[in-house]
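tool_call predict_complex ligand=thymidine-5'-diphosphate
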Amino acid sequence: MNRSRIEQCRIIDLPKIMDDRGNLSFMESSRHVPFAIRRSYWIYDVPGGESRGSHAYRELEEFVVALSGSFEVFLDDGVHQKVVTLNRAYYGLYVPSMIWRRLQNFSTNSVAFIVASRSYSEGDYIRDYEEFRKANA
Ligand code: TYD
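tool_result ok
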């Protein structure tokens, strides 16, 4: 298996239909998001200073959108790290499998909306950083 690299994480712009009545954005499997969407979940009401999701997935791919407010996504491929700030509802961050990621610095009332390539499976998680680093070496 090729190791995942931080450069594979990328911002993807979504359609934005501007309208005086309010703007509209959308995403479709395979067309805007580079995988078939199997699941979506959202993170909200995050208390100040908290972070979510310090782990990697063996197989799962995700696409993360800040539907409201802002937060950072910390990304780590075991060698290189970077932080991406999400703060608009018309683009998102693609995160392939085998990238350690953490959502952090949530603004008040922010909502992280995530679409995923697989249904929930605890067995797909790598929650131990050293195990991840060795597996992605
Ligand atoms: P988890 O992914 O560990 O949250 P985080 O990484 O943000 O800290 O999920 C927390 C709990 O929610 C965990 O017990 C499993 C459950 N869960 C589901 O049942 N389905 C899902 O789609 C997700 C994302 C979590």
